[in-house]
Each structure stands twice: as structure tokens, then as C-alpha cells.
Design goal:
Strand content: 5-15%
Oligomer: single chain
Shape: flat
Distance between the termini: 104 Å
Order of helices and strands: HHHHHHEEEEEHHHEEEHH
Strand order of the largest sheet: 1-2
């Protein structure tokens, strides 16, 4: 056994087989030229494998490109800082944990995401626009994902995506936690409310007192001709709410106003964890008619609030004012 170690390591590895992966079968089948002295080879197979991986990593300078790790499918220029080879002894640098103080307004409502209007498109490559993210633009794009008919898309976009910022105004100190808000504008007829059933803002008509006393007749007891005359003035959002009351009104809405509805495919998960088409489902959208007439509300509430806002703390500068060169020239 000691005589076999006088041969080189490469020769011994060449004589190994499947049954003897670590040491060749004794005695050696092929006569090899013995070495005059033992060669200092203390490295094991695992150490040689690690060294081989390290050599491959040094041959590929763009292995640790951070843009490739963020978005591997994007086409970009690799960072040039990866040409520098890493040292064998890596120093562990502990990054200090940044503690951000969350205002009480967001902490009470469990809002931990900073949502802003400026955002990138869902089809834009995030890896190529890292500078925009550092400037304050949101990384994730929140989509509406609501389904509408083609003739209803304009009304929905104008009501829920264009005019949504003009409904409610907030205190300028809302970033510090002030919960005050006021209505900047309101429709001339009716009011705006948030529907939990539809998960959207809806236009509610005002309650008009009727001169005819209530006789106790429900809506389902009316003749079909009368119901048809009433329901034909409703939009898709109202039809959706009306069809959810009972089976009779649902059948009435879809039989007489099926042209205003949509057909969806209902997907169901099977036992093999795959999805298949179960059935087709009729449904009305949450689209509403366009609001034409608006009333601009007064700005007095926000003016009165700023005088009493506890977050509006005035800072007093005790240092003397510095005269600008232009002002000093005028005095002279």
C-alpha cells in the first residue's frame, strides 16, 4: 500500500473504477514509474472540486451581476464591478438595520405600502429602471383587473381612474399621521359611497319622499311589464345589485337584459391540482353612467383645520437673517 503512494495522484485516480472510487485495486495492474520522493498532496477531492468551481467563476466575470439576479429575462448591460476578483478571505460586513418610523395613521389601518400615482407600466422591465425606483416610483404596479364591456370602458376609466383624486382632499400633514379629510367636489344629484359588495365607489341617488303612501306591495309582486319599464333605466352596476337579491329578479334581469351582461368562464381546480373549465357564467359589470354635473366644494374646511391641526407645528428660526448680495447692493 505504501509503495502505491509513490505513484502520482493522477495515475491513481485514473486506475479507480466504479467499485473502488477512492483507491485503485491492489496490486496495481499497470506498472507505473515510481516517484523518487513523495509529493505533498494534502488536498482532498472535495477541495479540488471547490478550487475548480472557483476557477470557473473567475473565468466568468458577469457571474454575480445583480441585475441578472433581479430579472434574469431582461436584456441589460452587466455591471462592470464584477471584473474584480474576490479575495479568498471574505470579510462579513454587518449592515445596520434601518428602523423607519411609521406614522400612527398608517399603523392603525395596517397600511405598510407607500402607494403613489406615478408608476411604471406592467410591461416595463423593472431591472432597467432602477433609477426610477430610487426616485420614489413604486416597484409594483397595482392593476384594476375588472372586466367590462367595450362600450362601458370609457365611463369606468373616467369615473374610477381619472376623477378619483378629485373626490377627497387630505391634510398636507397626512404624511405625519393627520387623519383629516374633506370632500373637494360632489355630484349635483345624489352622493358618492363605497360599496363593500361591489368593492368600488358608486353613485347613490338621493332619497325622494313620495306622496303616495306605501301599500305593502313588494317589488316581486309587480307585473312583469311594470318591472320591465323600471329596470330598463338601470345601468350595469344597478342590474348587478338587483340580480343578487333573489332568484326571481335574477332570472328577470338575465332574460330581458342579457345584451347588457357578460359571459365568463368559471374555472375549477381538480384533484390533480390542474384547472379545467367547469361552466359559463353570466354576470353584469360594475360600470356606472357618467356623472356630468359636479359641485365644487368650499376650501374653508381645510383652512380652518390647518389653524388647529396638531401636526402643523411651526418652526422658529432664532438665527439672524443673512443679507443676500442683491439686497445689500440696494441698501447701499
Amino acid at each position: 500500500l505504501l509503495e502505491t503512494y509513490r505513484t502520482s495522484r493522477n495515475d491513481r485516480k485514473r486506475l479507480t473504477d466504479f467499485q473502488n472510487p477512492f483507491h485503485p485495486l491492489m496490486p496495481l495492474r499497470i506498472p507505473l514509474e515510481p516517484q523518487q520522493s513523495f509529493v505533498d498532496e494534502d488536498s482532498s477531492d472535495e477541495e479540488n472540486l471547490l478550487q475548480e468551481k472557483l476557477r470557473k467563476k473567475r473565468k466568468s466575470p458577469f457571474e454575480n451581476c445583480y441585475l441578472c439576479k433581479i430579472d434574469p429575462t431582461s436584456q441589460h448591460l452587466h455591471t462592470l464591478g464584477n471584473f474584480i476578483e474576490q479575495k479568498d478571505e471574505e470579510i462579513d460586513i454587518k449592515i445596520p438595520i434601518k428602523i423607519s418610523l411609521i406614522p400612527s395613521f398608517y399603523e392603525q389601518r395596517k397600511l405598510y405600502v407607500d402607494i403613489v400615482r406615478e408608476h411604471l407600466s406592467a410591461f416595463a422591465r423593472k431591472g432597467e429602471n432602477m433609477a426610477c425606483f430610487r426616485a420614489g416610483i413604486t416597484v409594483y404596479t397595482f392593476c384594476c383587473n375588472e372586466s367590462f364591456r367595450r362600450d362601458e370602458y370609457c365611463d369606468h376609466y373616467e369615473l374610477c381612474h381619472m376623477d378619483v383624486d378629485d373626490y377627497i382632499g387630505r391634510c398636507p400633514m397626512y404624511t405625519d399621521g393627520c387623519p383629516f379629510f374633506y370632500y373637494k367636489k360632489a355630484p349635483k344629484w345624489g352622493s358618492l359611497r363605497f360599496s363593500e359588495y361591489l368593492s368600488c365607489v358608486i353613485h347613490c341617488p338621493p332619497e325622494v319622499p313620495t306622496k303616495i303612501p306605501y301599500t305593502g306591495i313588494s317589488l316581486c309582486e309587480l307585473p312583469k311589464d311594470v318591472l320591465h319599464e323600471i329596470v330598463q333605466y338601470l345601468d350595469s352596476c344597478s342590474l348587478r345589485c338587483l340580480s343578487a337579491t333573489n332568484h326571481y329578479l335574477r332570472r328577470l334581469c338575465f332574460e330581458n337584459f342579457c345584451s347588457a351582461s357578460m359571459v365568463h368562464i368559471k374555472w375549477e381546480r381538480s384533484e390533480t391540482h390542474s384547472w379545467y373549465e367547469k361552466c359559463f357564467m353570466w354576470e353584469f359589470s360594475t360600470s356606472q353612467r357618467r356623472i356630468i354635473d359636479w359641485n365644487n366644494q368650499s376650501t374653508l374646511p381645510i383652512s380652518d383645520h390647518l389653524c388647529e391641526c396638531e401636526f402643523n407645528v411651526a418652526e422658529k428660526y432664532e438665527a439672524k437673517k443673512i443679507a443676500l448680495p442683491f439686497m445689500a447692493h440696494q441698501k447701499n
